[in-house]
Design a protein that fits this description.
Chain A: Pfam families: Fer2_BFD (PF04324), Pyr_redox_2 (PF07992). The complex is a heterodimer of chains A (about 450) and B (about 375). Chain A is an alpha/beta fold. Chain A is built from 14 helices and 23 strands. In chain A, about 35% of the residues lie in helices and about 20% in strands. The longest helix of chain A has 24 residues. Chain B has two domains: about 170 residues, FAD/NAD(P)-binding domain, CATH 3.50.50; about 140 residues, 2-Layer Sandwich (D-Amino Acid Oxidase, Chain A, domain 2). The chains are: A alpha/beta (about 450), B alpha/beta (about 375).
């Protein structure tokens, strides 16, 4: 049986571990040179730092994932630095590109563990050099041992905001402000549910307290005004506090992010249906709790199947592999599946509380000013998208998100809407006066990520 | 519920929307039924070429008339749909292809189409960015390109303003003719009747014709299209080749749009997608024409569904089985440029009973498959 696993983060590692244990040697594909996923991304060879410095509380988990990954490599067809840019579920083939070389991988079953990326809300100045996502700020620190600036402000919401701020302060950067757009009251309401998270919840409290103790400016319930700067980059961040007072802090870099969204392009190309999850405020591919999709041979695990975090990803990866094995007629241990299912269910309750504690600030996305750059690839401002939704547009109003893309090029550029899509959908829905789920989802098209035109081969 | 009107149009591509506009402008009560959104298939996903050069001679009178409408599109539809007169440069990569270019000069002359041969001595001087495989070209200065995503919606919008009733998400599931009127029922259960029906349903036009006893040999045609990230703007003309296995153009914002070969589709959904090996082959052929695009990142690819006839020209004209039925479908991958004129011509057929454009070559019974 030919099995392909895409992604070598926590979900992919635990999936491959189960497959190998069952005597299957899958093709295992990852974009990064050395696996680990975004969360446990490893520094390049030669940059030696200990796991505790790199991953903090997660060091033990990270080390375990890395050790398992390294032990599995010789037992599988390991293909690092490889992009899966297309999938044809009808033919059961994947198309890959690695260092300029095209290849086709045939599979009978595939587990897609494609991870997540930051969700961004455009703020005036968000495209300046020196502004990165929270995830990118963290990866710079983790894999390159460098920060995005010396004096850094962090803006957004979610656990990552506090974690990254803590990591930067610990690494010696001056953190000038941690600005959470979620109010303290909102978090407090979710507190009972967050208790379910146990350690994860405790870690969150620890980071906040740690930052406060060091006198770092912390504000909750803020409204971003702008990230100011000049040709050389960022000079300051401005915001309005919960009471409406304006503030400003000088800085040379800013990390921003409002939670995560699944990197589900491959599931989309595999023709897995999607549903809008109102709690996550994300479109997520449809799968059952065991990781099985309605598309024959396609299984999903990890954040690419809906945001759950690294711990959930490990469990879901193992679970999806067991599902695949069971579907293929292998005998699997029922006790193990029950245990995994129980852990997934308990994590799901915590996750829902987390989403309620740090909700995607729809109101901020909907109120992006007309002259703020919304789609940076295509240079489209929020006002231009709003105009396309109105009846006086020459094409008639864009009443659906793919029509808006057609008419205005929103989400049509290099990132294919991965960066601007969530905010653009809210802007369009607000202008049309409807719920974001009602305007649909940006259609995915190959390639999953850009692929270069090859050099000419024929001699003159 | 039954709705009466003067003319029913099935299919909201460029041609159907143009017909709705032209009919409404002459005071006709017209209803257009579109299964999805207007311009969703062939009219909206094609390459965007607005080209006369290289066409089957039978199409040239229509193309010429359409070119005149394209020049006035802003007045007609409220937007020029980014129509730009860049010229179209058709390239030859060997002696045989060059002979083909030379032969077409006579056709162009006969139909009054301005065309200039760029021979071996000057092709690389005039276009220094062309690759060494190119040996000659022929340049049509009046041709160009437009944004296909805008044409049909803008025509539909103008048609609405002129009084046409454009119904989107109205899939026709049953056709009937009672001797004097057509009865169309949609999947939502609505019924529409009119004495005249225009079949402008692209690939699905074959199904409509079949419903009235005149089946035709039509196949789905899926263009395999790609676009790159923006790069320095340097490719001014719209480029094609003899044989048509690759075509590319660059828009001033920098993106290079290229196509070649065919993707896959399931018209019953409808669903279509480019094929990976075809996309890679199109890139290889394109970079041979213009080596400087090597390394540019392809950011998106797409396809759609058009209808292809065996002789690669559409069916246009009255039905041979049913009075009041007129066809215009099966544009075989090059209907985008023709769309605006097709609407005008169909309006003349319906209201005046005649048109100056010769349509003999496009008659539906040319395949000898009509049952009646």
């Amino acid at each position: 049986m030919k099995v392909a696993v895409v992604g070598a983060g926590p979900a992919g590692v635990r999936a491959v571990e189960r497959l190998v244990a069952a005597g299957i040697s899958p093709v295992w594909i990852d974009e990064a040179p050395d696996g680990g996923g975004r969360i446990y991304q490893r520094p390049p060879a030669g940059l030696a730092r200990d796991a505790r410095t790199l991953y903090g509380f997660e060091a033990k988990r990270a080390t375990s994932v890395h050790e398992t990954l390294d032990a599995l490599k010789p037992k599988v067809d390991w293909r690092p630095e490889t992009l899966v840019w297309h999938i044809r579920p009808e033919a059961r083939t994947l198309n890959t590109l690695s260092r300029g070389r095209q290849a086709e991988v045939a599979y009978d079953a595939a587990i897609l563990c494609t991870g997540a990326m930051d969700r961004v809300i455009p703020v005036p100045g968000w495209t300046r050099p020196g502004v990165t996502t929270l995830g990118a700020a963290q990866i710079a620190l983790k894999t390159q041992g460098c920060g995005i600036g010396r004096r850094v402000a962090f803006l957004g919401t979610g656990p990552l905001l506090w974690l990254v701020a803590h990591q930067y302060a610990k690494a010696g950067a001056e953190v000038v402000a941690v600005l959470d757009t979620t109010s303290f009251a909102t978090k407090l309401r979710a507190a009972p549910g967050l208790m379910l998270g146990g350690m994860t919840f405790a870690k969150g409290l620890y980071y906040t307290a740690w930052l406060r103790r060091r006198g770092i400016h912390i504000a909750e319930g803020v409204t971003p005004i702008a990230i100011d700067g000049d040709d050389n980059g960022v000079t300051a961040i401005a915001w309005r506090d919960a009471a409406g007072r304006e503030h400003r802090a000088e800085c040379d870099a800013a990390g921003i992010g409002w939670g995560l969204k699944p990197e589900a392009q491959l599931a989309d190309l595999a023709r897995v249906p999607f549903r809008h999850d109102p709690v996550q405020a994300n479109w997520v591919p449809v799968r059952d709790e065991a990781g099985r999709t309605p598309v024959a041979g396609i299984y999903l695990a990890g954040d690419g199947a809906g945001i759950g975090g690294a711990e959930v990803a490990e469990i879901a990866g193992a679970r999806a592999a067991l599902t695949l094995l069971a579907d293929a007629g292998h005998r699997i241990d029922p006790i193990e599946t029950v245990t995994l299912d129980r852990r997934l269910a308990s994590q799901a309750r915590f996750r829902a509380a987390l989403e309620r504690a740090f909700p995607f600030p729809t109101h901020l996305a909907r109120s992006i000013a007309d002259d703020t750059l919304l789609c940076r690839c295509e240079g489209l401002r929020a006002g231009e998208l709003r105009a396309a939704a109105r009846a006086e547009a020459a094409t008639g109003p864009a009443t659906e998100v793919n029509r808006a893309k057609s008419f205005t090029r929103v989400g049509m550029g290099r990132c294919q809407g991965r960066v601007c899509g969530a905010a653009a959908a809210e802007v369009l829905a607000a202008e049309l006066g409807c719920d974001v789920a009602a305007i649909g989802r940006l259609r995915g098209q190959p390639p999953v990520k850009p692929i270069p035109i090859p050099a000419p081969v024929s001699a003159p | 519920m039954t709705t009466d009107c003067d003319v029913l149009i099935q299919g909201g591509g460029g041609a159907g929307c143009s017909a709705a506009l032209h009919l409404a402008q002459r005071g006709v009560h017209v209803i257009l039924l579109e299964r999805g959104l207007v311009g969703s298939q062939a009219s909206g996903v094609n390459y965007g070429g607005v080209r006369q050069q290289g066409r089957n001679p039978a199409e040239l009178p229509i193309a010429k008339r359409s070119r005149e409408l394209w020049g006035r599109l802003k007045d007609i539809a409220g937007t020029d749909a980014e129509f730009t007169v860049t010229g179209h440069l058709k390239l030859a990569r060997n002696d045989e292809e060059e002979a083909d270019l030379v032969a077409y000069l006579d056709v162009a002359k006969q139909y009054d189409l301005p065309l200039r041969l760029v021979g071996r001595n000057s092709i690389h001087q005039e276009y220094p960015w062309l690759g060494p495989k190119v040996v000659a070209g022929s340049f049509a200065p009046e041709d160009g390109a437009a944004n296909p995503r805008l044409l049909s919606p803008a025509l539909a919008n103008a048609a609405r303003a002129a009084g046409a009733d454009i119904r989107e998400h109205a899939e026709v599931v049953a056709h009937a003719h009672d001797g004097t009127r057509f009865h169309l029922r949609t999947s939502a259960g609505e019924e529409f009747t009119a004495p005249i029906l225009l079949n402008m349903a692209g690939f699905w036009g074959g199904k409509v014709a079949e419903a009235f006893g005149e089946p035709v040999p039509i196949e789905p045609l899926n263009p395999n299209m790609l676009v790159t990230e923006p790069i320095r703007y340097f490719i001014e003309p719209n480029l094609g080749v003899v044989g048509g296995n690759v075509y590319l153009r660059q828009i001033p914002r920098g993106n290079v749009i290229l196509g070649g070969g065919h993707g896959e589709s399931d018209p019953s959904v409808p669903w279509s997608r480019p094929l990976p090996d075809v996309s890679v082959r199109a890139m290889e052929l394109a970079v041979e024409l213009v080596p400087a695009i090597a390394g540019a990142q392809v950011i998106r690819s797409w396809s759609g569904i058009d209808g292809r006839m065996p002789d690669r020209i559409p069916v246009i004209g009255p039905s041979r089985t049913t009075p009041g039925l007129f066809h215009a479908f099966g544009f075989s991958g090059h209907g985008f440029q023709l769309g605006p004129a097709i609407g005008a011509i169909m309006t003349e057929l319906v209201l005046d009973g005649r048109t100056d454009i010769p349509l003999e070559a496009f008659r539906i019974d040319r395949f000898g498959t009509t049952a009646a």
